[in-house]
Amino acid sequence: MGKFKTSLTAMAVVLALGACSEQKAPQTTSVDTAETPAMQENQQFDNVLLQEFKGPYGGVPAFDKMKLEDLKPALEKAMELKLKEIDEIANNPEPPTFENVIVAMERSGSELSRVFRYYGIWSANKSSPEFRAIQVEMSPKLSAFSTKITQNEKLFERVKAVYESEELSTLTEEEQRITWMTYNDFARNGATLDSEAKKRYAAINEELATLYTSFSNNVLADEENYVTYITEDQLGGLPESFVKGAKSAAQSRGEPDKYAITNTRSSMDPFLTYSTNRELREKVWNTYYSRGDNADEFDNNETIKRILTLRDERVELLGYENYAQWRLEDRMAKNPENAMDLMMKVWPAAIARVEQEVADMQAIADAEGADITIAPWDYRFYAEKVRQAKYDLDSNEVKQYLQLDKLRDAMFYVAGRLFNFNFTPVEEGKVPVFHEDVKVWEVTDKDSGEHIGLWYLDPFSRKGKRSGAWATTYRSSTTFDGKKTVLSSNNSNFVKGAEGEPTLISFDDAETYFHEFGHALHFLSADVKYPSSHSGVRDYTEFQSQLLERWLTTDEVINQFLVHYQTGEPIPAELVAKIKKASTFNEGFKTTEYMASAIMDLKYHTTDPATIEPDTFEREELTKLGMPEEIVMRHRTPHFGHVFSGEGYAAAYYGYMWAEVLTADASEAFMEAPGGFYDEEVGNRLVKYLFSVRNAMDPAEAYRKFRGRDAKVDALMRDRGFPIPEDKSKDKSEN
């Protein structure tokens, strides 16, 4: 990620999500005024969070020495240093050139970039009330700092001069692209406004930064505070592996005689799938889907209203009709109409499939004399019964062959075949980690032995760690200022198996594991010169990770790595056949819950916020769409962190579906090849055009170089087993 974007984009992600992988610099007023300036300066030099990464592998973060009391002074000092560098670039008396403006900006802010890495760890992996207090205080200061850069008129004039210069045409494709991105970041973030508008723009950003932090912390509070404890007589239907994990989770929370259902998807999902206690299923469902919506001090509804109002006001200053229009201008979709058009092509088939799925579930419930009407907390439970009845496929049976460590080895195998990477465990203690669960591997080229980087893995759920799964980098690969190798990281929230036993996960979780590893491979395979080339186009960067999920079900992975956790026997061929036969099972549920969130995201950001009461708006708009009452949004509005904890996915959550079109289409390229998913020629194009170029090339052009054409939505419909909609414009366009 570029150094300019480190200030703008990376901080927004850090504040919102802790990484997946913004701002007048405040004076150090927090330092005791009795200290002399010299003492203060010495304190900053001693601050480990500011120091260059030291040790092996080109230097690594000092996670073993990070102290929370160092964070605030480190941020303040790093912002001060960054602003000094920016002022030098802006006031350089030499004529503006690519080298003394764009490259100089790429080089600036190394201290701040390092501090952000530690900030992200506290935010996402080891949050605490003490950290959140710092986060609340520093968020508006970081926003003011970012604004001071984007509203630096001398700097913008120099950027603009390079962008409009004759020199631009002599630059490489990557250099032209990062020049355009730098100019565009300024223009889209208020650099062209008059002085009064700039002041208001800055004030809006500061308030939004505080609101994003508040939203995120409210959700985390509900995840930590609302744990459902059950007793031994309430374990009916739950798999042994889940029971052991729940027991361990309760013990770690000081309840040794109980079992803990934590308020995270990885705990909620299997409980709703297997528990025979309907009353408890309803309680766990309500607890999970009510995060941020409990009419208490952590309720997010008013926060959402204010966020939407401020976003709308801000883009109005820039001349845009709505926030989504501004957000999508530089994305593959280009505008909200195109994004919504894709949603609407898929939505009717998805809800029609849900109707079929519910009918199948209701039939089983009736046959069993359950005397119920399928409700949202029944969906997973009866879907599993349908799976067993229709496909003779038991998810818990499949889970016995999905060991976390074996799946990790499978991912390494795929990376070796496609990317020529080799993963070797790093000796414990050689590289500092921030928690004992974190393990590290060295990544090298299989043929030359060249060091590529490190891969960190933090797989398990714990208190203070945000829910979900994500990937990030602690250092990205660049060559413009000396070769920098990669420090990549994957983070999950699996429920750890009992002491001495492997961690078993669901098939959906296994897909997520591969998905996030796809992001890591995107980082590790990068072959770009400049930091800004790592800034992603949101509706494209999910494509590479979604694509990697496809290798989970290749024969090579199934036959080698899906072995029973007790016997070591490979998964039976007949069970594999059932898995593949049921590959589009429950696709109505999965597609509809996701798309409901994506559609609502676009509606929130194309509607006058003055008319929006979040709970009412969500309910009424979903009713208009014909949302099945047995399903809710994957992320209900009060805890929709992708959209309201920051701006990374705001008005852009549709991007997963946009990326799914690319994924389905790219998958067919492999299926059509002689060597299938391990075809060497297609694999080489995959690495060259879809992974290594990052954002150094326009994504649409990169995809065309890989596929020879644009992606087609028909591939997605085939992939999900949906009928392909008739394209009424096709005949007109071909005549």
Describe this structure in words.
This protein has 735 residues and is mainly α. Among the domains are: 3-150 and 152-189, Neurolysin, domain 3 (Orthogonal Bundle); 226-289, no CATH class; 301-393 and 586-653, Neurolysin, domain 3, CATH 1.10.1370. The longest helix is centred in the middle third of the chain and has 32 residues, at 336-367. The two termini are 45 Å apart. The radius of gyration is 25 Å and the shape is globular. The protein is built from 30 helices and 7 strands. The model is unreliable at 1-44 and 729-735 (pLDDT under 50). The chain has helices at residues 3-17, 37-46, 71-90, 98-107, 110-124, 129-150, 153-163, 173-188, 195-225, 240-252, 265-274, 278-289, 301-317, 323-328, 336-367, 379-391, 395-399, 404-419, 507-524, 538-548, 555-561, 573-581, 587-604, 614-625, 641-644, 655-671, 680-691, 699-707, 713-720, 730-734; strands at 228-230, 259-261, 421-425, 439-445, 451-460, 470-475, 486-494. The protein has a 5-stranded mixed β-sheet with strand order 3-4-5-7-6.
